[in-house]
Amino acid sequence: MSHTTAHPPIASRTEWLAARKALLTKEKELTKARDAVNAQRRRLPMVSVDKNYVFDTQAGEKTLLDLFDGRHQLVVYHFMFDPSWEKGCPGCTGFVDAMGDTASLLNARDTTFAVIARAPLEKLQRYRAMKGWKQELVSSNRTDFNYDFHATQDESIAPVEHNYHDKVELERRGQARFAQGENHGMSVFFRIDDAIFHTYSTFARGTEGIVSAVSMLDLTPFGRQEDFEDSPAGWPQHPTYG
Hints:
Distance between the termini: 55 Å
Shape: globular
Structural class: alpha+beta
Number of helices: 8
Strand content: 15-25%
Radius of gyration: 21 Å
Strand order of the largest sheet: 1-12-11-4-5-6
Largest sheet: 6 strands, mixed
Number of strands: 12
């Protein structure tokens, strides 16, 4: 029995090549636009982080400064894991699954990667063991970190803000569900000696393309540190090839 399946139109090789070249033009425009946005992101100002956060880790208590592990840049993934849950968010779980050994690639570019969740350390360790992850999970359970960086919404603790919209704006946009509980996101921090600065955060669909070390580096002040990039003078850069 024959079954009809939806599919793209069928064309000759010549017709396909013409359509592909037209699409390639659009793809190159998108690449150049993305490069321009990344260049603008590398020029964002940064703001001092003055609160002392103490996290629970497999190696004991660590401050935000400790999480840098001596490097200049720290990328944090805000993992959705409420303290009352027994398992982490499926989407966040898929993200960590996909990242694999991202840490070593980032480390080579003076950048540390941390996954931080609000669940207590014991639950995080059980979940990590169940998933077989090498990536450590850090608990912010005893800190205001999630609330201060808008990864958890609870207006009894801090004003609601998700993806730079307050509660009124979220409700107006039909996104009231983001005004409470856990949300995923990414935040970037920079270190000058012992001083810590917040440089960038992104939430919602802003995280969906961050599935590799290079896309994560694009969020940082130093970027990929390759010589094709438009970066401020003095930024570390290496040959893109070779």
